[in-house]
Amino acid sequence: KNNGMIGNIYSMGLALQALEATRKFYAPRKWDCAQAFSVVFAHDYQLPMAIAQVLPALVGRSYLDAAGLDCAATKDASPQRQLPLSLTLGIRGVPRGITVRYSITNMLQGKHFHYSTVVTVPTGSTLLQVMEAAAEENPQIFSFQVEQTSWGPYVTSIHGLAGSTEDRTYWQFLSAGNALDEGVGTYKPKNWELIQAVFSTY
Fold first, then answer.
1. Considering the entire predicted model, what is its pTM?
2. Of 19, 17, 20, the residue nearest 53 (C-alpha)
3. Better-scored residue on pLDDT, 21 or 185
4. Are 133 and 117 in contact (CB under 8 A)?
5. C-alpha dist (Å) from residue 184 to 68, 125, 167, 197
6. Strands 161-162 and 152-158
7. Model confidence at 83, in pLDDT bands (50, 70, 90)?
8. Is 8 one of the annotated binding-site residues?
9. Any idea which positions bind cyanocob(III)alamin (predicted)?
10. pLDDT band at 73; cut points 50, 70, 90
11. Which of 81, 132, 160, 174 has its CA 20 to 30 A from that of 107?
12. How far is CA 191 from the centre of its chain?
């Protein structure tokens, strides 16, 4: 993408490792390394799986290097790149309230529906917390279920409608019509952002 994103924020770690490891094979065509790393430096990684995939690239290594590492020789070596503060310190802003517009839509299966609400949550809240606030205010409409995965919570059902691998359906989350680059457990909506959950097919 033009802003340096490769796939989404979860795929960045492996993509950077692959591009660094294969750099000599695609010269003279170049990719903008600095732009891609600026995306990583600007993100506040929280999921252990995502951190594990991005850390090797941040120190100029890839998983391919693991087999040939001489730990005794490298124990005093310093990383080639400085890690972002957000990755090491988990900096948070001062808590305040934000208002988020949230809607759920099914125009795909069964009885179609579209519901919207506005909820107020503390600044820094995740999309999952927005969904919980909506469900608390109106459980008959905005109730949902999640499944815990190594990549964080995965929304399996909203308003009683569950995605299915057999039907190739799932709940897709959008902001301004664009698919979110993060999951509900880490994405932090902005004040007055419109978040749409749309029952979709792949």
1. 0.59
2. 17
3. 185
4. no
5. 37, 10, 22, 11
6. antiparallel
7. very low
8. yes
9. 8, 53, 154-155, 180, 202
10. low
11. 132
12. 18
Mean pLDDT check: name the lowest of 45-59, 109-123, 139-153. Answer: 45-59
Residue 154, marked binder: yes
Which SS3 state, helix, strand or coil, does residue 130 take?
A: helix
Count of CB atoms situated within 10 Å of the CB of 109: 12
Place of tokens 């590492």: 69
Q: Which CATH architecture has domain 97-201?
A: Beta Complex (2.170)
Which residue has tokens 């099914």? 106
Q: Does position 89 have pLDDT exceeding 90, yes or no?
A: no
Whether the per-residue pLDDT at 153 is higher than 90: the answer is: yes
Q: Which residue's structure tokens are 């693991």?
A: 66
Edge to edge, the sheet with strand 194-201 lists 113-122, 97-106, 194-201, 169-175, 178-179
* Upper half-sphere CA count for residue 166 (Cβ side, 13 Å): 1
Dihedral in degrees, nearest 10, Cα atoms 142, 166, 154, 45? -140
Task: Measure the CA–CA gap between 102 and 99, rounded to whole angstroms.
Answer: 10
Q: Does residue 10 have a known ligand-binding role?
A: no
Local structure of 120: helix, strand or coil: strand
Q: Start-end ranges of CATH 2.170.130.30 in the chain?
A: 97-201
